[in-house]
């Protein structure tokens, strides 16, 4: 017993530097590709250069003769023809799902699909031999355009399905009883605005390429993988391959980013497993960047048709959303559900009385799509926030004012929305007021006015995004109602070591988020131990045997709550022993910061002391087991609903189309904050990725179905040099759903920022007649939009025919010539 | 990704490099800074059987004063070019363009000779070489020859350097006291130029007395904007003059269309960027 324990400082809210960063940043750690096992072989994949073709012959003879080659295998050789990669989210009972083989055996369906593999003694020999495999194809017409894919008589990606339509998923507030009938609202509306937006295809571009090592030696087969989801992967390997689950151990060692791109059960994981098991030797596969770009799943790729109905006073009366979502060539783990995650978010922070959502998922001969940071919610937020600006223009109402007239007031929480979610808390007024203040909103509006008046070649635009999102996936019952193939709980356990140190086992699987640090801070407070004395174990199905992994901003709101619940159990176990040691009743004990104190005295003992006493187990109360170790599995009652106001000012050079971000202010409300430094990091990275969609990134296919942005020289991921200073601040409206009052932050920046930037670009040139610019708003697109708008306003003269025939180009050339003539 | 296998020879002298090139046949590549060649090898877009590395040849590095010219040895890195006092004083345009190449890591490895011989039309050193009337000193089995920059760039990724030759030096006529500016237009910081304009002008008493303007990525080879130059010379250095002259910028160009820019947009950019580049070089409000 001791009474000298240091008074614990509170870790919660402290901006600690991350304890895992030194090893992650230097790379002196266990990335999957760093793992080398005795006798390990290396795998390379032969990939299809065609988007759609029959495989007529695969000749592996030359490859097999090359030095170092242990084997060349096709799907048939591996017995993989009957295997289908799992899709765990059949969103409708009648959904059409093609077989998704890990290697194509009959027909290739996208450029980059695996056709054969080579296993060799080193990676270079495997690569050489892969190049020596010759595959003969009969070309088929590729299906690349979603609307064309749905036309009658079109080529089918999977003829056996009889259609390119995966499914149609509908939510209607009239039918659900959560609101009115949207067709009525549109019919009776004083104002109706319709718009089509395009969510370009994006590539997650995580920093660490995917890598898999499978060791089949030993009783349990072990797979290391650069994955976000080791636990899901283990279950899926068991279910997909019929392997007894207890014979498989999956380890996600340190993982270098994912952004949803590693929320997957990949063809390569399955193939590496099969070939390692067959050869009885460890096998490693690590992809190149070019391989990653073409074969790892992509994100977004939707066409969004929105119709909004309103009264002249700005009251929104109805919203109709019709989507086409490109699945690519196959359904991956949760592909069909990604656009559905957006279905509940189009109404956003607004009180919309009637809502209809219909999404048609479409197959094309492109890389499959699946989760990418935000997953459905960025698309929804973009569309509604763009739409609010369009409606504001139509009504002549200031865009922030229009939003305020429609948003849920802070005193109206909890609020059940037209899409049936119940937002537990929020304060949109506070976040917006703070953002306006930091942004100097009124001054920028005045400057914008001056520049317009002066016809400045560089125009100023202001973009608004007052967003919310649903995250912290999720209550298992809700996931069940959406036909999601798993629960939304999370598991944690706490092991009290004899020396008073703590091991925290978490089912969350970090890949850059900083769980080691945040979980240590939380547990340090709960158990009164120091931050340094907490070790976080994760990502190994042997040590952290149970988990639902990390995606959808769920780690803190679900995983960390499980940690708290486990800590509470440790304390309850310790309380019995403390009472015994201090010779008092449990009711006489106060607990705080790791210390039990007899009320009204200075007699106390600590959890650390009790851990040692439990280890000795010499003097424990009757019937008490000698262990403080505890675990908890937590299933949340609701999502978490972070929100915030993002304001962006852009300067648009109308001469060149160049967009530069002059000021970016965001005030996010992510509830209570465990570590402000980590939150800032998440917000900064999130905004960067959102700006990337707005201005830079796009996966582009040519007419043959080849991805032409297949390197980072063509696919423009912005760096720090391309991004502005971010002014970040927070309001803290605690979530009422969990005991820490926290909300997810992993996706908020990405979800919020894209519409803020695009709204700002369009606002800068709106007065010239521009009403929309497709993402990414490249200089050429912005310049053409301005030229086209100017051409339209000039086209009342004899130039009309010329201008339309050239799609605007004729008038641009004419104008350019006019200018040069005038200048002379 | 992993390149195909190749023989690697680190030449210790220019003579040794040339001997290897002469004997190795057509499937040989010269490695300078490796900032273009290595990615191409790793993507297996090229699979040479032999690579001759020039990095161990110390005589190929450095900048020296040679009377009315400065001489930049071919293996001088971008970083060293930018920081060289002779270059800054007498060839400010080259320093300005080199500052925009890639990123700091690339500029530490990449070399002026490598960039010129690679002859990527979007590369940033080609237009300054043409604008500055550089002379390229090439060594081969039959000795040393000098090719003016205007004749050096033959086509897409093709120069006057023969298969058994090495570019050893770039002689740059001194442009001491000239104003210089390189106006680069690209989408992200580390990307190649969509269009860029290299401009150098000499002004006396408020008039432009000499002007050199060349364009990056407005054709398969760098384009000297002679009609812009002619329109500038003898004129007062003011916004009106420069604006009028810049309207000639796209004359004689044949830009390509790609995902970043169609040809007509490139022509438009050439005019706008020429105006800005010349104005900056002449220190005039554009």
Features:
heterodimer; A: 824 residues; alpha+beta; 7-stranded mixed beta sheet; 5-stranded mixed beta sheet; 24 helices; 32% helix; 22% strand; disordered N terminus; disordered C terminus; B: 286 residues; 5-stranded antiparallel beta sheet; 4-stranded antiparallel beta sheet; globular
Commentary on this structure:
The complex is a heterodimer of chains A (824) and B (286). Chain A is an alpha+beta fold. Chain A contains 24 helices and 28 strands. Chain A has a seven-stranded mixed β-sheet, with helices on both faces. Chain A has a five-stranded mixed β-sheet with strand order 7-15-14-13-8. In chain A, strand 26 (643-653) and strand 27 form a beta hairpin. In chain A, helix 12 packs parallel to helix 21, helix 18 crosses helix 19 and helix 20 crosses helix 21 (748-765). Residues 1-8 and 792-824 of chain A have low confidence and may be disordered. With 286 residues, chain B is α+β, with helices and mostly antiparallel strands. Chain B contains twelve helices and 14 strands. In chain B, strands 4-5-10-6-7 form a five-stranded antiparallel β-sheet, sandwiched between helices. In chain B, strands 11-12-13-14 form a four-stranded antiparallel β-sheet. In chain B, a hairpin with a 2-residue loop joins strand 4 (63-66) and strand 5. In chain B, helix 10 (226-232) runs antiparallel to helix 11 and helix 11 (239-246) packs antiparallel against helix 12 (263-281). The A-B interface holds A 123-124, 127-128, 131, 288-291, 655-656, 658, 696, 700, 708-709, 711, 713-714, 716-719, 721-722, 778-780, 783-784, 809, 812-813, 816, 819-820, 823-824 and B 1-2, 4-5, 39, 42-44, 103, 185, 187-192, 194, 243-244, 247, 259-262, 264-265, 267-269, 271-273.
